[in-house]
Write a structure and sequence with these properties.
Blueprint (H helix, E strand, L loop, with lengths): L3 H9 L10 H10 L3 H6 L7 H17 L4 H13 L3 H14 L4 H14 L2 H14 L7 H13 L19 H8 L10 H17 L5 H12 L8 H13 L5 H14 L6 H31 L4 H10 L2
Helix pairs in contact: 4-5, 4-15, 5-6, 5-7, 6-7, 7-8, 8-9, 9-10, 9-11, 10-12, 11-12, 12-13, 13-14
């Protein structure tokens, strides 16, 4: 639990004096936003570093035997990306595009890799092209990735507006940006739009990085907006804290912590309860990740198809 000391220090700091977490609110938020807690804590089956090292080698062998295998390029590039080699992942997509140009998967993957490489304008161009090929890809999630890139390209230095203790909070951050892209630019986010946006962001967290600070901040913005009967300030406070943990010290970290303070100040409950719940969630996520890792190491050692074994054990009912 490598983040635990930092987490406790953050929650014990003055900015977190009003941390909240009570069982009734937790139950309500779980019911209204199913799956959000597990995604934030990384409590879902996800591949290990060892898996991506195995798949990288396997994909390279497949391509050496059959350079026309398009799916192997995607597998290789994603594993390169997951291992931190974004330049290699982009080169792999370029090789694939030379064989069959303009495929949706190539454009979408390239856009994602360019984000991590720091080329937001290039990423936006790729995602725009992907949307032209398939506007409803990933159940509409692609358009939210486009909006995230555009949001990142804007000046995001302004912290969330709101008074501590006020239960109805206006849209801000990514939530406000999503509203600005809706017909008529409504002032408030209705429930269908909020659910759609949250599903898109948590989907990106599952398939990209569950602990990405940008995605966590965007999730917090979507969860905190609105009246107490509609929002999820407990989850939002948690999302902002996790985002802050993964940011270097500076203005960005301070702004995200300010957002956390607004979320945490809506209800007064013991900080110790909040810490206990958060640490429990983190522990569950890390235990599952280690279980998957040990399984994948064993499958690799046994010479099995690790992808097939993972799908059979963790994804199929």
């Amino acid at each position: 639990m490598r983040y635990v000391p930092c987490l406790i220090a953050l929650l014990a700091s003055p900015v977190s004096h009003a941390c909240i977490w009570d069982s009734d609110t937790i139950a309500s938020e779980k019911t209204r936003f199913p799956g959000v807690e597990d995604v934030m804590f990384g409590n879902f089956p996800r591949h290990s570093k060892e898996f991506h090292e195995w798949r990288k080698k396997r994909s390279e062998e497949i391509l050496a035997a059959d350079p026309s295998n398009l799916a192997a390029y995607d597998d290789l590039a994603v594993s390169q990306h997951k291992l931190g080699d974004h330049t290699g992942a982009l080169a792999t997509m370029k090789r694939k595009d030379a064989i069959k140009p303009g495929l949706y998967e190539t454009l979408s993957n390239t856009g994602t890799f360019l984000i991590y490489a720091g080329d937001l304008p290039g990423a936006l161009r790729q995602i725009d092209q992907a949307l032209e090929v398939n506007p409803n890809a990933h159940f509409g999630r692609e358009k939210y990735q486009k909006w995230l890139i555009e949001w990142l390209m804007e000046d995001r230095r302004e912290a969330r507006s709101g008074e501590p203790g006020v239960r109805a909070l206006p849209p801000s951050g990514f939530a406000a940006f999503v509203l600005s892209r809706q017909p008529g630019k409504p002032a408030q986010m209705d429930e269908p739009l909020r659910i759609e946006a949250i599903k898109a962001v948590t989907g990106m967290m599952r398939f990209a990085d569950f602990d990405n600070p940008i995605l966590l901040e965007a999730l917090g913005d979507l969860l905190i907006t609105g009246a107490s009967k509609d929002n999820a300030t407990q989850y939002a406070a948690c999302a902002y804290i996790f985002a802050a943990l993964r940011l270097p010290d500076g203005d960005e970290k301070r702004r995200v912590l300010d957002n956390h303070e607004v979320a945490a100040a809506t209800v007064q409950v013991a900080r110790e309860t909040f810490i206990k719940q958060v640490l429990g969630g983190v522990k569950k996520g890390e235990e599952l990740a280690e279980k998957v890792r040990q399984d994948e190491i064993a499958w690799i050692a046994a010479g099995k198809d690790v992808s097939a074994e993972f799908n059979r054990k963790y994804l199929k009912p």
